[in-house]
């Protein structure tokens, strides 16, 4: 019996390994990790491991298999032919990555070579190698998205001179922007767990035709990992475990994800916990950034205590939990159903840039912190494939999201804690179609969005615990709705030339009531009904094997939201923003042209753009019944409001280069240059607030066998006092001081090295030493200094 059992074991072992193949780079002979292998209808799929190996036992012998990798040309063959050829597949490198497929421009798969806009893609491998602590850090690592931070629990992307509510974020096709996304810096992107991301695509430039309001400067699409199926009645269990530690803020992160797949059902669970301590800045840089003292409360009194290490930014630490659960059901080759649940929450986290402001030479705030930032997304998705008269593919997404945030601040030696709490219930539904013709494709769809906003304010006596009603940040029980229909047409004129155009109509309805007894406004409600039409047209032309071009003209819009119309807050010391119910949409007109050149070992990608923003909603001085000053939280404050009071324009250039120095050594570099101006009340042109300084990175990457090394530099240019927007000039506490005593944003650079080693079949170790020279710097408009010298160690186990 033992002999029979042993023979059976050997037989099963032989059969399972007889269908294991290896995928290699045809030019270097190196194994390729994370190659997607799938059949014609994509009902079955698998990925290669670290050694480029994959088991094809889930596929039948006669099936045509597709091999796809982001940096190689797609290959297809039957399983039978692959096994006969020695169980090896050699993929040809793609010289200019034109074969890459993206989803972000139409919500359906398109070849990058056919898209007339610039799209930046980041894969799961990029996440593991870059070791980002948050999704904001992941975007920044691309070298093409600028990120501002007011505190460590933050990260506000800037793209082509636009930020916050002029950029759109989606997660698994669901709009994340809410009716209270503000014009100031927002940190909602940190709610997305970078360790659960399968792929991130950033559309640089307008995306309103597909995504509607807010997609003015760009669209950031995050696609989380999907459950994978098994075949032939088997159950397949796989997953990853990951741990990371960083020295600059004593980070401790743990992550696990587990996939259970059967023939028709698949389940995926992912969880991440991160604990961040106070952040230590570098040794060499402006002394103004140091933290020599901070406030603590002892024996019922606020006292200022010296900081034992002024490079430690106290307090900045916080912790965060992210959980993801997905269920997928594929009853047939035509239907694919999915349910996703994502939840993220943080601890309280300090608003660091408010904690070192001074008034009359003394620290102003005793405490200023955000309450837990909560985000829940639940979505149901149905994907239908067919060959009908009206469509070949259809996608339906229905989603509910819950957002909660709060602000808590108290002045030094004051006993009153001012608190604001906001909640948003966000409902959405979209139905999208793709219809393919011989040489063209038509995309069309409809979308509905409803946001319901709850907002409450209170004032708490910290000595007695007594609470009374205070002013809410937004009008409570307000709503924002969007109804939209769109169409987009792509025509493949010939193999080297494609044309794409489209249009969208949006109708926006906003309702808010201002019956707060704390302030006596000269209006009781706001009811806005407005529509907007946007369109685009562009071409992508591969002139030759060396030269390619893209050209795109597009419009975008942003409709007033609850934050624009109804917010009450202190924008700066002595300034208070009040509601304005008379707002209209702002419109952007964009022109973009790009050139791609490939000369064998050398590639160059250049893009230039110009965007005009009309009727821009900006903060300006305001009056209420002739009054220009009111008392806000115990302080006389100049009244301001968001108004359609300006036009603005942005222009710039993005350049990327890649040089294959040796088979195992390459140089990759990115740089972005942005210039922006907006009109003042007197008609003068002043710098645009969110136009970032020159920024970019350069990487020297060496990879051979199981080891990968990346020596790289990150850098930002300087913005002098005259190059700062007036609103930034008023925030002298954020900036260094020039020779004339005026605030300015210094240029900076960091030198860094990252290494990655496959230490065993399923084990991957990553080590990074960032900011090697220990520079002390703040990125433009940021209220917190970046990490000093920082050692990051990570270990990943895949099973």
Descriptive tags:
single chain, about 800 residues, mainly beta, 22-stranded antiparallel barrel, five-stranded mixed beta sheet, 8 helices, disordered N terminus
Helix content: under 10%
Instruction: Give the helix/strand class.
Output: mainly beta
Q: Provide the β-strand percentage band.
A: over 45%
Compute the average pLDDT.
91
The major pleated sheet works out as: 22 strands, antiparallel, barrel
The end-to-end span amounts to 32 Å
Please give a structural write-up.
The protein is mainly β and 799 residues long. The chain is built from eight helices and 54 strands. The chain has a 22-stranded antiparallel barrel. The chain has a five-stranded mixed beta sheet with strand order 10-16-17-14-15. It has a four-stranded antiparallel beta sheet with strand order 3-2-5-6. A hairpin with a 7-residue loop joins β11 (146-148) and β12. The radius of gyration is 27 Å and the shape is globular.
Please describe the topology of this protein.
Blueprint lengths: L1 H17 L1 E6 L10 E3 L6 E3 L5 E3 L8 E6 L2 E7 H6 L3 E4 L9 E2 L7 E2 L6 E6 H7 L4 H7 L4 E3 L7 E4 L2 E2 L3 E5 L2 E2 L21 E8 L3 H4 L6 E7 L11 E11 L4 E11 L3 E12 L2 E2 L12 E6 L2 E6 L5 E2 L4 E12 L5 E12 L2 E2 L1 H4 L2 E2 L2 E2 L1 E6 L3 E12 L7 E19 L4 E21 L3 E22 L5 E4 L7 E17 L2 E17 L11 E17 L5 E12 L3 H5 L2 E4 L2 E3 L8 E14 L2 E20 L7 E4 L2 E28 L2 E15 L5 E3 L7 E10 L2 E10 L9 H4 L6 E2 L5 E2 L3 E13 L2 E8 L19 E9 L1
Parallel strand pairs: 1-7, 14-17, 41-45
Antiparallel strand pairs: 1-4, 2-3, 2-5, 5-6, 8-9, 10-16, 11-12, 12-13, 14-15, 16-17, 18-19, 18-54, 19-20, 20-25, 21-24, 22-23, 25-26, 26-31, 27-30, 28-29, 30-32, 31-32, 32-33, 33-34, 34-35, 34-36, 36-37, 37-38, 38-39, 39-42, 40-41, 42-43, 43-45, 44-45, 45-46, 46-47, 46-48, 48-49, 49-52, 50-51, ...
């Amino acid at each position: 019996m033992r002999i029979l059992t042993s023979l059976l074991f050997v037989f099963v072992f032989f059969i399972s390994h007889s269908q294991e193949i290896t995928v290699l780079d045809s030019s270097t002979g190196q194994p390729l990790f994370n190659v997607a292998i799938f059949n014609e209808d994509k009902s079955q799929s698998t990925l290669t491991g670290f050694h480029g190996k994959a088991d094809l036992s889930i596929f039948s012998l006669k099936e045509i298999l597709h091999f796809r990798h982001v940096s190689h040309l797609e290959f297809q063959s039957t399983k039978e032919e692959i096994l006969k050829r020695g169980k090896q597949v050699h993929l040809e490198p793609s010289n200019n990555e034109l074969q890459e497929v993206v989803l972000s421009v139409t919500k359906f798969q398109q070849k990058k070579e056919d898209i007339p806009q610039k799209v930046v893609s980041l894969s799961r491998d990029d996440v593991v190698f870059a070791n980002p602590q948050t999704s904001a850090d992941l975007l920044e690592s691309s070298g093409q998205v600028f990120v501002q931070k007011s505190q460590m629990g933050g990260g506000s992307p800037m793209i082509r001179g636009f930020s916050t509510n002029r950029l759109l974020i989606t997660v698994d096709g669901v709009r994340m922007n809410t009716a209270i996304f503000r014009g100031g810096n927002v940190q909602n992107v940190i709610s997305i767990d970078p360790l659960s991301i399968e792929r991130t695509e950033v559309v640089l430039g307008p995306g309103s035709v597909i995504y509607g309001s807010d997609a003015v400067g760009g669209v950031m699409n995050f696609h989380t990992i999907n459950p994978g199926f098994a075949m032939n009645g088997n159950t397949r269990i796989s997953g990853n475990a990951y741990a990371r530690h960083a020295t600059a803020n004593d980070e401790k992160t743990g992550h696990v994800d587990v996939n259970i797949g059967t023939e028709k059902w698949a389940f995926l669970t992912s969880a991440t916990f991160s604990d961040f301590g106070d952040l230590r800045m570098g040794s060499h840089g402006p002394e103004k950034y140091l933290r020599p003292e901070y406030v603590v409360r002892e024996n019922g009194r606020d006292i200022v205590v010296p900081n034992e290490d002024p490079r430690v930014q106290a307090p900045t630490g916080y912790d965060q939990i992210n959980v993801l659960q997905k269920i997928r059901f594929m009853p047939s080759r035509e239907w694919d159903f999915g349910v996703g649940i994502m939840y993220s929450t943080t601890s309280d986290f300090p608003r660091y840039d408010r904690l070192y402001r001074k008034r009359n030479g003394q620290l102003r705030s005793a405490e200023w912190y955000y309450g837990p930032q909560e985000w829940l997304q639940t979505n149901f998705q149905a994907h239908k494939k067919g060959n009908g008269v009206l469509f070949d593919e259809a996608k339906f997404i229905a989603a509910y999201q819950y957002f909660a945030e709060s602000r808590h601040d108290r002045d030094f030696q004051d006993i009153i804690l001012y608190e604001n709490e906001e909640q948003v219930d966000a409902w959405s539904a979209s139905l999208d179609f793709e219809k393919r013709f011989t040489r063209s494709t038509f995309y069309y769809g409809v979308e509905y969005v409803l946001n319901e906003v709850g907002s409450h304010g209170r004032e708490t006596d910290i000595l007695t615990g007594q609470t009374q009603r205070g002013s809410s940040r937004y009008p409570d029980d307000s709503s924002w709705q969007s109804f939209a229909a769109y169409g987009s047409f792509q025509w493949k004129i010939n193999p080297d030339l494609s044309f794409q155009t489209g249009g969208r109509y949006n109708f926006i309805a906003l309702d808010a009531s201002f019956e707060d007894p704390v302030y006596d406004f000269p209006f009781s409600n706001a009811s806005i009904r407005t529509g907007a039409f946007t369109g685009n047209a562009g071409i992508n032309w591969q002139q030759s094997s060396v030269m390619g071009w893209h050209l795109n003209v597009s419009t975008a819009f942003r409709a007033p939201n609850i934050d624009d119309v109804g917010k009450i807050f202190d924008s700066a010391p002595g300034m208070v923003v009040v509601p304005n119910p008379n707002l209209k949409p702002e419109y952007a007109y964009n022109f973009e042209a790009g050139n791609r050149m490939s000369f064998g070992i050398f590639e160059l990608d250049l893009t230039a753009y110009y965007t005009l923003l009309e009727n821009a909603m900006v903060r300006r001085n305001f009056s209420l019944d002739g009054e220009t000053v009111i008392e806000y939280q115990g302080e006389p404050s100049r009244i301001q409001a968001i108004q359609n009071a300006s036009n603005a324009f942005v222009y710039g250039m993005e350049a990327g280069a890649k040089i294959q120095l040796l088979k195992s050594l390459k140089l990759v570099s990115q740089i972005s240059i942005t210039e922006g101006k907006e009109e003042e009340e007197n008609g003068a042109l002043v710098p645009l607030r969110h136009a970032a300084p020159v920024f970019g990175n350069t990487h020297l990457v060496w990879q051979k066998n199981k080891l990968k090394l990346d020596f790289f530099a990150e850098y930002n240019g300087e913005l002098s006092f005259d190059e700062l927007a007036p609103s930034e000039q008023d925030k002298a506490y954020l900036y260094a001081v020039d020779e004339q005593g005026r605030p300015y944003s210094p240029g900076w650079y960091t030198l860094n090295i990252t290494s990655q080693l496959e230490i065993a079949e399923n084990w991957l170790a990553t080590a990074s030493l960032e900011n090697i020279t220990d520079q002390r710097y703040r990125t433009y408009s940021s209220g917190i200094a970046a990490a000093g010298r920082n050692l990051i160690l990570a270990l990943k186990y895949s099973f």
